[in-house]
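Can't paste images in this forum, so I'm doing it all in text. The chain is below; anyone willing to post the predicted structure tokens underneath?
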Amino acid sequence: MHAFPGAEVGFSGDFRLPDVSADTDKVCLPDMSRPYTSTLGGAKTAGGSFMVMPQNTLQCKLMAALMAAMVAASAARATDEMVGQDAEAWTIWQSALDSASREDRETATRNFSQLLTMGLSDLRLALMADRTGSLGLENWAKEAGAPDPVKQLVEKITSGRRQKALAEDGWHFAAIGRFKYADANFKALDESNPDPVALLELARRNPNRHAILIKLISNAEVGPSAKRFLQLLDLGEEKLRMDASEIVANIGKLAGPPRMSFNATSRLKASGEYAIPHLLQALQDSGRKELHAAIIQVLPQIGRDGLNPLCAALAMADNVTRHQIVSTVAQIGYRQALPYLAKLTSDESASGELRAAAKQAMVTLGAGAADTAALFFELAESYYNNADSVKADPRKDTANVWYLRDGTLKLVAVPTAIFNDIMAMRCCEEALLANSNLENATALWLAANIRREAKLGLDVESDKPDELAAKDGTRPDGYPRSIYFARAAGPKYCHMVLARANKDRDVGVALGAIAALRETAGEPSLVGAEDIKQPLIETLAFPNRQVRVKAALAIGQALPRTQFAGAHNVVPVLAEALSQANRQAALVVDGDSASGNKIQAVLAGMGYDCALGDTLNSARETGRKANLTTFDLVILASDMSGPDVTAAIGDLRREFQTAATPILVLAKEGEATKASSAARLAPGVEVLLYDALGLGDPKKISEHVGNRIARASQALGMAPLSADQSLSLALQSARVLRLIAESNLKVLDVSKATGALITAIRGNSEPLRVAAAHALALHRAADAQAAIAENALDPQRSPGERIASFNSLAESARTGGNLLGTSELVNRLIEFTTQEQDLVLRAAGSQALGALDLPSNKASEIIRGQYRG
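Text version of the structure:
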């Protein structure tokens, strides 16, 4: 009777049938009616016991053939149940074990060496070894002179088994409520850098394992490590669904037995868009006709996830395949395919039959007329507005943009945040190719391009190269910045873009459009009664201070001389920039006074004035009492009430003043999930863990909070307004106010900014004090002239600033006369000009004094004051 030293492999692995023509009178066959346990490996494997039968009988030969088929089917089922298993690696592994069992160690060593070069993970090798058993291999590795590949392989298998044990122990401890131990195991597993796909196979062995991890997320002890475990499994799912070799293998299995075909179909559906190029390639392969019927059935089952590559593939040259794609997108049933079908109806390279099929598919999808440009613009609007039917999965970091290049589908992965903007731009381009005069498509393309840059963190007002642009792989190197296109398009289109930004309250798009207008438009194309010119004026009431001020600066800089609606708002907005210089305000809602005070202290250290309250309304009231009318940041405690955090976010986004303000949800202990759910309600909302406030080092705490603010701001298409940026806006406002006053415009009343300029001249910034004094010099108001004089006479100011202020005082007196009269300030000025030791300062003071044109007795007083006999 034949012996089977490789029996540890079991029927589902590497069980070898004997040669029925061998010179022996008996043959050993598996008896599938009785269970057995494989011997050498120690792993239990489904199979049967052995039967001994006469060899030289027809029955024996028939049984041998039957058993061969059963063993092959069993092996196929076993392989089919593996997750992400490389078929070639599995074959090599089985062959190596087979060679080892026959004492052909040379061949086995060669196979094991080849296996090592394939880069399989430790956990993957451990799973393979556990399926077949590896005791013989491990004993071999212990022998003196064992080959290095054998020893290395056993080391990797041992390491993988440690990872497997960490995962399984973690699940076990979690299931029995020993969360401390579960956390320790999960953390150790994460630190070991496990293979996500192999880990996924381990998780799928018990359907409860995934559910356990989900339940653990909100647990204080093990929540973070459980969440990380789930992220690893999600990564495994993503790697598995996009694995080309896995997809190709599953396509091949479509022609297999029903169970295999069903499993392959399920996996191809899970692969979604990644499967489309391979399915179409197989459909075009005349040598694989046995698969074509199954592929035609599978394609529509992939559903919406396959539409983007399918629509891109409609541009291929193969009319037969295109005909099938037309049928597929019609069965999937989304209007997203309509413009691509419309384009096909006018494609001269398409057959008449194909064009007719495309028209019929359009009717099926609810469209009659084939206005390609209008349909592409409609789809562009859907992408730009983030419609549910076309938006990318927000849970994923990247989304795929598909192109047909040289007849082959290619994808470019981009950050999910910019996917819709890129697709909106592509649809606008198609619309303009169909109708070059479609102005709305041009404006939408410009808006989407600006928004794309803003979401990437680029400064949309700059035309300089930025390394952040490389995050978008759909743009070539050296691609011009968005402001280049906006400038080139001209004021009309920039106004259209700005109108969209006002409607959407989109900070980034508004800033980009205003920057282009500011550099290309003069008064005639900037403001006026025409509807097209209203968006810039309307932006003066935008719910973001930076946007409001930039709009006012653009209008003021143009020096309008013709009256227009909204002109009365320009100067007050510039005044707002002056009053908010070096000052940021935060609205903080927290019913727990201790934690509320803690976050208030952190924000104060970051330069924020805080309006704190236990409810939303009480915080607002605190702000009103402190004269905080606009806010740069809102922080809401996850456990707030009256209203709760979810309702509060809705209220704040509906309210004009906070519609475009970054919001942080302060996640209290055990409420991370609740905070995360609330943060998904609207753009520009991020989670701040309360534990982060206890990092110890104030600098680290400020950096962490600042990073969360930056993330929320970026989601709104803006960067946080720093103290330096606030100061810059204030300086620009002061200079434009000076320019308006110099021009003696009747349309814009600079006197509305007098108070803000006086406040600025008393502030902490020397450059702003100098600029404010320079602007106040043209305000014919006694309090303005007095503020300049006080600053010039202040000994705490630098000599340069005092000289500049004396010059401004002289200009104020020359243009507006002496508004100080004979006040105490005049006496101080006389005293200064007669007693100051610094002759340069004294000369500047005397110039101002002369310009005031004092009464003759005052002049006599100066002369008498210098008398020395």
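Residues 94 and 374 are 59 Å apart (CA to CA). Residues 780-865 form one domain.
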